[in-house]
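Propose amino acids for all 326 sites.
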């Protein structure tokens, strides 16, 4: 009788331990990992897996290195795309057949980046990136800035507002309004001088003073510099670079400071819009009136209006669109 009870007790204990092992999170994780590894081993001997691997190169896009163009100066790089074979197989294995619409891609960085280039101004983005950047130089025109911010928000568009340091000091509330609207700000010198005519220390002072007042007012660290009237010499670009700022120029000029009719501004810009275009504008009445239609037309061409940071980074626009659409 005692021996029978011991057998029953031993059976119960064994059953209890078995349940603990089966329900243990570490055991479950081990089994999942083992199953996952087994599935990939099976996949790699599978015809579908081999087919994806064989066809992958035809869908891949090589990255583009940054380079210095003889006309347009510094051109940023652009990420390429490579097929994630394992992830693609996971999406296709249920039906067991190849489907290019289920391919999963990963971005591949170029070997040469914008930061690797010698100091050089930027006039446009990478010609394969379907984006257009707006730069808005601000030293006056306060009354038109709220309307421009409203239009940018309506289109979920962005711009880089290049602020004169003296203007920021005198108009801190408007400067804060710009950054509160999630718009980027850049350096447009402190007193709006002809930078090409300044001595080295004066150049440095104009840039550092503006950096300081923008940071103190908006809490934004500046990384872009737009010389007033586009006037610079090589030393200006080199000094800006030594201070951590890339020099930004433009591809299309609205010449809006002459206050032409809004239709002239729209036509002037659209004639030059292509991938990577940088549009120069100011807070003026005709620009504020033209902005809505201008963004609409650019978007209709298949391009997105962005700030300088977005235009010049290497991230692909097709990847950005997928994220936005989720």
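Proposal:
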């Amino acid at each position: 009788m005692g021996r029978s009870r011991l057998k029953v007790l031993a059976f119960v204990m064994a059953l209890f331990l078995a349940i603990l092992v089966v329900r243990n999170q570490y055991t479950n994780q081990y089994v999942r990992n083992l199953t996952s590894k087994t599935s990939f081993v099976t996949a790699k001997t599978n015809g579908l897996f081999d087919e994806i691997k064989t066809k992958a190169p035809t869908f891949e896009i090589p990255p583009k290195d940054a380079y210095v163009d003889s006309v347009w100066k510094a051109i940023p790089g652009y990420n390429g795309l490579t097929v994630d074979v394992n992830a693609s197989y996971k999406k296709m294995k249920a039906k067991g057949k190849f489907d290019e619409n289920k391919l999963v891609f990963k971005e591949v960085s170029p070997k040469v980046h914008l930061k690797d280039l010698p100091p050089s101004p930027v006039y446009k983005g990478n010609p394969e990136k379907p984006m257009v950047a707006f730069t808005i130089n601000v030293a006056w025109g306060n009354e038109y800035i709220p309307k421009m911010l409203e239009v940018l928000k309506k289109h979920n568009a962005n711009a880089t507002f290049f602020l004169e340091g003296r203007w920021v000091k005198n108009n801190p509330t408007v400067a804060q309004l710009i950054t509160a609207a999630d718009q980027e700000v850049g350096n447009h010198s402190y007193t709006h001088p002809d930078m090409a005519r300044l001595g080295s220390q004066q150049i440095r002072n104009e840039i550092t003073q503006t950096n300081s007042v923008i940071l103190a007012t908006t809490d934004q660290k500046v990384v872009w510099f737009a010389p007033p009237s586009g006037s610079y010499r090589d030393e200006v670009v080199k000094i800006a670079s030594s201070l951590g700022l890339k020099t930004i120029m433009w591809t299309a000029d609205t010449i809006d400071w002459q206050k032409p009719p809004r239709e002239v501004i729209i036509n002037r810009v659209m004639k030059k819009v292509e991938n990577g275009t940088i549009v120069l504008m100011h807070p003026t009445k005709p620009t504020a009136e033209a902005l809505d239609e201008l963004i609409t037309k650019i978007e209709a061409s298949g391009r997105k209006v962005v700030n300088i940071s977005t235009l010049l980074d290497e991230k692909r626009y097709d990847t950005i669109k997928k994220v936005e659409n989720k």
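Residues 2-23 form the longest helix (22 residues). Residues 35 and 49 are 17 Å apart (CA to CA).
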